[in-house]
């Protein structure tokens, strides 16, 4: 039975890998923002390997990537105050191993990054929330600088800027962040000038976050265990690297470790990055010029913290352990940004994505 929310609770969704008898799709749970306690998760929708989920800002629709050799995007309508998800339709992503979804600022276009074949696609979002025709498709054919380690293009994240004029794609295989001109009316993508930015060799850019003022961007290097800070041009969207900083403390064991998630605190005072293998969360302070200062690196309290989310109130970081089938909460210090374990944990099979419902306005 799904719990009835209280005034102190907020709903969030959990993307998982599915397995018979373990997980059948997207789960949902309530976070009590007063205590950090998580309700027992329940199945909100059955879908194979929904490893990334994203919500529309109006809180009416959710979209999931169905990770497979022939990947799909699935549109859902939130029902019963979000406790259930009703399938709207399913469309192809045009590639394999889809790993990230995002929407443009008008929420009329949905983007997807296909890791397996190094491609991205854009599709229409119709008035009823269902997915329509493809408006853009790009397959990156550039060989990597180090074929022994990265081999080729692996598109891992796709993001529109606040002005809805540029779209950025993190390419883990080529150490590039591709920059595209975006026509919001047509949903088309064209190479920008310059067409990409580069980060240090063998870093492997995985995800990207943009500061709300639009002048700074951050990307985490999966293999390099680092974060690169970019100064962003408001004129042509170009990215100029101004800092690269490690996610692990000096002397830490790096073998088998990779970064995964990255998120700005709602206040934009702090940046958080998760480290798999090392099983930790790194916290940075954000200066007025966008540069980062190391604050701390703390245990994530789960094994393989692939996905995490920060609740809209900015009080809690919720992190999933892909390898120990648990979700836990860490309290965010409102003065320092530091993290403190809450002791609250619930079980979910292979949780890899955490997505909160939008804050009410």
Walk me through this protein's architecture.
With about 350 residues, the protein is mostly beta strands. It is about 0% helix and about 55% strand. It has no helices and 28 strands. A 4-stranded antiparallel β-sheet has the order 3-2-1-28, with no helix packed on it. A 4-stranded antiparallel β-sheet has the order 4-5-6-7, with no helix packed on it. Strands 8-9-10-11 form a 4-stranded antiparallel β-sheet, with no helix packed on it. A hairpin with an 8-residue loop joins β1 and β2. The protein is globular and about 50 Å long.
Task: Throw out a few tags for this protein.
single chain, mainly beta, four-stranded antiparallel β-sheet
């Amino acid at each position: 039975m799904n719990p009835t929310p209280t005034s102190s609770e907020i709903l969030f969704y959990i993307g998982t890998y599915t397995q018979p008898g373990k997980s059948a799709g997207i789960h949902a749970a309530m976070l009590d923002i007063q205590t950090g306690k998580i309700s027992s998760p329940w199945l909100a929708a059955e879908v194979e390997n929904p490893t990334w989920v994203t919500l529309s800002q109006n809180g009416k629709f959710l979209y999931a990537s169905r990770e497979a050799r022939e990947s799909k995007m699935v549109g859902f309508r939130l029902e019963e105050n979000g406790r259930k998800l009703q399938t709207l339709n399913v469309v192809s992503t045009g590639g394999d191993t889809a790993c990230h979804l995002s929407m443009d600022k008008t929420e009329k276009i949905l983007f997807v990054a296909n890791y397996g074949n190094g491609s991205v696609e854009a599709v229409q979002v119709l008035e009823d929330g269902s997915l329509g025709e493809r408006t853009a498709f790009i397959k990156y054919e550039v060989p990597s600088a180090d074929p022994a380690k990265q081999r080729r293009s692996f598109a891992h994240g796709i993001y529109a800027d606040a002005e809805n004029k540029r779209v950025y794609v993190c390419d883990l295989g080529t150490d590039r962040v591709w920059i595209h001109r975006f026509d919001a009316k047509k949903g088309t993508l064209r190479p920008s000038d310059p067409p990409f930015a580069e980060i240090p060799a063998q870093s492997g850019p995985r995800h990207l976050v943009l500061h709300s003022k639009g002048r700074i961007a951050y990307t985490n290097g999966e293999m390099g265990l680092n974060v690169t800070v970019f100064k962003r041009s408001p004129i042509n969207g170009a990215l100029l690297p101004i800092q690269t900083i490690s996610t692990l403390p000096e002397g830490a064991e790096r073998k088998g470790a990779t970064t995964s998630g990255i998120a700005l605190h709602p206040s934009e005072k702090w940046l958080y990055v998760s480290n798999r293998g090392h099983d930790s969360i790194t916290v940075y302070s954000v200066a007025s010029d966008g540069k980062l200062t190391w604050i701390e690196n703390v245990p994530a309290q789960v094994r393989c913290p692939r996905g995490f989310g920060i609740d809209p109130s900015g009080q809690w970081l919720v992190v999933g352990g892909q390898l120990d089938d648990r979700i836990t909460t860490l309290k965010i210090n409102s003065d320092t940004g530091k993290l403190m374990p809450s002791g609250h944990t619930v079980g979910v099979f292979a949780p890899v994505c955490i997505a909160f419902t939008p804050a009410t306005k």
